[in-house]
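Known limitations

Files may contain more than one protein. Parsers should not assume a single record per file. Below, a two-record file is shown to illustrate correct handling: read the sequence, read the token line, then continue until end of file.
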Amino acid sequence: MKIEAKTDIGMQRQMNQDAYCISQDNEKYVLCVLADGMGGYTGGEIASNLAATSVEKYIKEHFENNKDYTKEELQELVKQAITYANLEVYSRAQQEEELEQMGTTLEICLIYNNRAFIGHIGDSRIYRIRQDIMRKITVDHSYVQKLVKEGKITKEEADHHPKKNMLMKALGCEPIIEPDVTVKGFNEGDIILVCSDGLTNMISEEEIYNIIRNDFETAADNLIKRANEMGGKDNITVILIKN
């Protein structure tokens, strides 16, 4: 397993409100978490860091090394980790008035036995590259994605819609959350990309794919460099996992 990861403040923000963590301490699994915070000057940074560390802590404490997990059990573990992180962020927001609007996107990728267990809330994204095809395996929880699903606008129109950044769902905004939890095969040669929208709003999926395919080891650096060349309007975080 090879992992390359990098985060960058971008060209136009005063603070990096993206957070990520990678846990390879346990020989049974690999865990990658990404959160893109929102909510005021410090709120987004606090929300994203708290979400990422809460997920890492929960899975580390509840994963049983001597157990052979079923697919359903690991999906439930990911869901419970999100529930825990949501309550941590929500509770913190209730305690301090200046943080009451804070929240965050959340992406979890837990690799176990050649499978990727995915947890998702918001509009950060996870892609899988397999046999020269890159597919998005998360669905944005955004207003424009809702319009696309309803057939009111096209995917191309969504890319430039004025309400592109309006989220329909985020972590920490409500006491109860319903995340998307899925499982995908992760075969030898497959690559998984976990990224914040600071990347996908700046670069097309075709260009992202070409940069990753050109050189995996330098792809994280090159993706961020290219996003900044295109304007770098937001924080940019990239995690790449190759089996």
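...continuing to the second record:
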Amino acid sequence: MQLFSLAGRVALVTGSSRGLGLGMARGLAEAGAKVVLNGRDPVALSAAVASLDGADSEAFDATDEAATAAGIAAIAARHGRLDILVANAGTHGAMPLPDWRTADWERVLRANLTASFFAAQQAAIPMVKQRHGRIIFTGSLTGSRGRPTIHGYAASKGALAAVARTLAVELGEHGITVNTLAPGYFETEMSTLLRQNAEFFERMTARIPLHRWGQPEDLAGIAVFLASQAGAYITGQQIFIDGGLSAAL
């Protein structure tokens, strides 16, 4: 369907050598976009590119603002445009309240919040010139629902949704939409330790109305929707992809 086609569009997905980022990149590619994968690990990035027909890559550390600016400028120059940014790169952090230190807090916020903001800042440059763009942040259910020990992570993801709203208001006049995806519990490398805790895994699975954890491909459809003409009138929103967990009592 033309409404969902991304033919002729160029998409950058940060942190896409594996996990949720790679799942969304696959969806965008299947919808016709020219996808640029990003990551810091050249071996993992090469493997991801090899697994995705026609994919391009741009290796840079998303937490390095200068490297991000240079990488995004290079993509726009190489492909003549940049239509879609999925700011997905990030990290996790969990520890009891007394153990958190300033360095721990700043590490998590820099990777999840600051890096995404400055990626959006740089991506907006070609998008404003084109008068078209789609910016999608990877937030989290835990940015709106509490869970012990993940204080910095929850703060960064909650703030990301707020940033998306401010950008949506500022960039709307240029034909750019900005939205946040809020995944619940997904089976990725990042959630390995959680899933190895049998008691936690079983308890959380029982609470999810669909009675399963998400797979990376479960984000592909919503990413395509928001990136395509079908989602052209949706901006400033946070959308939960959590198997119904946020709706459950």
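Parsers that stop after the first record will miss the second one. For reference, the second record is described as follows. Residues 2-239 form a domain with the Rossmann fold fold (CATH 3.40.50.720).
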